[in-house]
Amino acid sequence: MTIISATAMDERRSRLLVVRNDKLGDFMLAWPALACLKAADPAAHVSVLVPAYTAPIARLCPWIDEVLLDPGDDAGADGRRELLTRLRDGRFDALLTLFSTPRIGWLGWRAGIPLRLAPATKWAQLFYNRRITQRRSRSEKPEYVYNLELAEGLLDELGHPLPPRPAPPFWPLPDGTRDAQRARLAGELGLDARRPWIFVHPGHGGSAVNLSPDQYGELIREVESRLATASAPRPTWLLTAGPGEEATADALCDLLVAEGLYATRLPPRQGLDDFALSLAAADLFIAGSTGPLHIAGCLDRPTAGFYPARRSATPLRWQTCNARAHRLAFSPPHGADETDMTSIDLQAAAEQIAHHIQTLTINEPAP
């Protein structure tokens, strides 16, 4: 086993490589771990290995110094060689793999990275010389806490005192960013800034179980009814959509408008990074357990998430990383099929969401 000399480590900035190269939501739940690494050693050079899809938003992360692109499992021999060369040239002191796969473990080992830490899962752990047993399949903690524990394990191996765990927002924006995003949308869509702006993402990101568009329509009508009963300001509903989800969002928007609700669709943004920043304008973000929900959570915007009840996808495991007071979560009740989203009591959910909206500070300044 290669031992890192403390003297050698002190001669230059520590170079750390963090890998979370799967989906957008998974990557957003890595930001608390990245914040932890920077809090322990602000001088450390933190690189991330991510797919091209999440790279634009990774470049906005304040805890990341360098973004490396992972060509993926289908890159072939040439792609693997090119990535291996990049990793060797990076002269990394440590590799932290938040989601372990044999390919990444093999690359870290072949690149000669001295300290390689990952969860002790599957045979991929053979490529790592530090392993932490987590048993994530039990879903006993939020995913971002599992990630934080791995980051703390790496810091312990590097000899850094553990800092206090960082608190939301894990994506702190420069002053004025939220106000700028609200002004931009108000100008584009003619929105009334005095109303609550409730963003709804009816898509499912290709994997997350979500409410159907009809259920979202029912939920929105029920929330509106409760706000009207309480003489609260009527909200504006902004429908968002990922690639290929535009027709679903448009159909729901048209239905709401036909029923007399204030609804519109978020205009196309210039890329994932631009879309992500636009979520700072939300007073509340409602969605299934998708990437956009976790972007909103990372921004510490209030969220209402709809989750299946299966063990690998519970509201606890995929909890958003915003402040506790900012999040609501709903899932099928005990005894229902774990993926039967029709079993969720939308009346009760609407009651909680309407109450949540009334307690929010509307048009608050950016933190």
Automatic annotation (TrEMBL):
InterPro entries xref list: Glyco_trans_9 (IPR002201), LPS_LOS_Heptosyltrfase (IPR051199)
Organism: Halomonas flagellata
Keywords from the named record: Glycosyltransferase, Transferase
The protein's name in its UniProt record: Glycosyltransferase family 9 protein
CDD domains: GT9_LPS_heptosyltransferase (cd03789)
Domain of life: Bacteria
